Amino acid sequence: MRVSASDKIPGVVTRFAPSPTGYLHIGGARTALFNYLFARHHGGKYLVRIEDTDRKRSTPQAIEAIHDGLEWLGLLGDDKPTYQFERAARHVEVANALLESGNAYRCYLTSEELQARREKAQAEKRPFRINSEWRDRTPGAEQDGQPFVVRLKTPSEGETVIEDAVQGRVAVKNEEIDDFILLRSDGTPTYMLAVVVDDHDMGVTHVIRGDDHLNNAFRQLPLIRAMGWPEPTYAHVPLIHGADGAKLSKRHGALGVDAYRDEMGLLPEALFNYLLRLGWGHGDAEIISREEATEWFDLAGVGKSPARFDTKKLLNLNGHYIREADDARLVELVAPKLMLDDEAGRALLLKAMPELKARAQDLNQLAESAHFLFVTRPLTMSEKAASLLDDEARPLLARAYAALAAAERWDLESVDAAIRTVAEEAEVKLGKLAQPLRAALTGSNTSPGIFDVLVLLGRDEALARIADQSGAKE
Ligand code: GLU
Which of the listed residues 19, 204, 220, 233 should we mutate to test ligand 1's pocket, taking the one with most ligand atoms within 8 A of CB? Predict the structure, then answer.
C-alpha cells in the first residue's frame, strides 16, 4: 500500500525526551524510533530533549550512553539536543505568568499539614486529595516570608478527555486531578511544568511516548490550556513486556542498547527492524527497511496491547541482516573481536566471510566461527571435536591426508573430489569422514562447509592440521 502525499500532516514536530538516569533502554529506543519515523513520514522534524532536571540521578555517563545508542541506531535528533535543566529560568517565567493570570496560586500548606491530611484520609479509607484552601485564599501579612509552593488551579468539575492516537478516547474526572505543584518551595520548577513548557517552546505537535505517561497527560493538558497554547496530539504507546507477559525489566535480561550491540552482537538495522515490529505492524511485513518504514509508519498501526520481547525472533532477524550485510563491513565489526590487526588476517577473514556469515546469528558467533582461521597448531580441541577423533577416524584422516596431498590443485573442486573418493573407497558415508576432518581442521564440531574450510586454510596449513590428528607424516 502506498501512502499518498495527501495524508501527510504539515509541520509535524516530535521529540524523544529521555531522563539521563541510566542507559538507553530498549523501550526508550523504541519510543525514539516511533518519534523519528512519524516525523520522517510526514516530512517534519524530530528532536531530542535530555530531561536532566533530576540533578541527583542524572549523570554525564548516561547522557553519553543515550547519545551513543541513538547514534548507533541512526536516531539522533535533527538539531542539537535541548537540555531541560538549562531552561529552568524559562520554566519559572511561565509559572509566574500563570500566577499573574490567576491560573496558579501560592500554597502555604506545610508538609506537616499535608501529612496529617494524608493520614486522616487513609484512616477514613478515602482517596487523599490536596484540596488546598489557598486556591481561593489571599495570603495575608502572616504569610510574608513563609515558604510556599506554586500550584496549578486545575478544573474541579467535569472531565478531561484525551483523544489518544493509540489508546483512543480516554477520560478522567477532573476531581481526580490534584492541583499539582509547578514550583517547589525552593523555587525550582517541577518536571510536569518543564515538560509542558519545553514541548511548547520546541513546537512539538505530537507527543509519542510510553503509556506510563498517560496519567501525566491529564495534568499537562490543563496546564497547556491555562497558557492558551496549542494542544499536541498524544500517542501513548504500550510498554514492552517480557516473554512471561510482565513489564520488561532487568529481570528479563533487558539491557541497555550498548549491550545489544556489544554483548549480543547485533547490527543496528536488525534492532531497528525488530523494535519497529514490536508494537507496530504493516500487514504481515516482517523485514522492513528504513525507507519502507519511513513510507509506511503511522500511529494507526501501533497496537493497543503490550508487545512481548522475543530474543529468538530478534536473533533470527539479526541473522538475516548479517547475511545481507556487506562483507567488508562485517570484517570491520568482527576483526576487533578476534584481535586481528594485520592486513593478511583481514584479507583471509574477508575471503571467508561469504561462508561464515551464512550461518551466524550474531557478530560474536561470527567471530567465533572465524576463530579457526587464526589459531596456531597444534589446535586445542573442543570436547566434542576430541570425541570425533577416535580410533576409527584416525586411519580415515590418514587416507584423506594422502589423497589431498596428491591433489594437483587446491580448489573447491579438487578437494571435494579427493575427499569423496576417500569416503567411497573406505565405504563410509561422507559425514563419517567430514566430521573428524572438521574437528582436525578447526578444533570444533561446527564450521562452514568442510571443502570451504580446506580451501580457506590453504594447502600447507590444512595438511599440517590433518597430520597433527591422524599421525600421518607431513
Ligand atoms: N523523561 C521522561 C522519561 O524518560 C519522558 C517524558 C515525556 O516523554 O514526556 O520517561
Answer: 19
The Cα 23–Cα 36 span in angstroms is: 19
Instruction: Identify the residue whose cell numbers are 516482517.
Output: 286
User: Is 15 within the bounds of a domain?
Assistant: no
Question: What is the Cα–Cα distance from 465 to 474, expressed in whole angstroms?
Answer: 9
Cell 556489544, located at residue: 262
Contacts of residue 426, defined as CB under 8 A and 6 or more positions apart, other chains included, come to 396, 399, 433
- The mean per-residue pLDDT over the stretch 72-94 comes to 98
Taking the C-alpha atoms of residue 461 and residue 463, their distance in angstroms, rounded to an integer, is 6
Closest ligand 1 atom to residue 209 Cα is 8
For residue 416, CA distances in Å to 53, 407, 468 come to 67, 10, 21
Query: Residue 22: is its pLDDT beyond 90?
Result: no
Residue 460 lies in a domain: yes
Q: What is the DSSP string of 417-446?
A: HHHHHHHHHHT--HHHHHHHHHHHHHSSS-
Q: What is the domain range of residue 419?
A: 383-470
Q: How far apart are CA 206 and CA 200, in angstroms?
A: 11
Q: Measured from the CB, is residue 256 less than 6 Å from ligand 1? A: no
Average pLDDT of the chain is 94
Nearest-atom number in ligand 1 for the CA of 15 is 8
β-strands 206-210, 149-152 pairing: unpaired
Count up the domains in the chain and report the number: 3
pLDDT at 7: 82
| C-alpha grid cell, residue 7 | 495524508
| Per-position DSSP letters for 332-363, written without gaps between them | HHHGGGGT--SHHHHHHHHHHHHHHHTT-SSH
Give the closest residue to 185 by CA, choosing from 106, 282, 129, 77. Answer: 106
Please indicate, yes or no, if residue 232 is contained in any of the structural domains: no
Burial (0-12, 13-18, 19+ Cβ within 10 Å), 449: middle
